[in-house]
Amino acid sequence: MRQVDAGIKKKVELIDSSFWRYAARSTLATLFLTLGTAIAFGTALEAEKIMPGSGKFTFAFMFSWSLVMIIFMNAELGTSNMLFMTVGVYRKKLSPGKATKILFTCVLFNLIGGIVFGYLVSLTGAFQNLPADNYMFAGVAGKLSKSTLQIIVEGIFANIVVNTAFVINLRMKDDAGKVMAIIFVIFIFAFLGYEHVIANFPAFSLAFFASNGTIAGMTVGSVIHNLIFAFIGNYIGGALIIGMTYAWMNKTDTSFID
Question: From CA 229, how far away is CA 152, in angstroms rounded?
Answer without folding.
Answer: 5
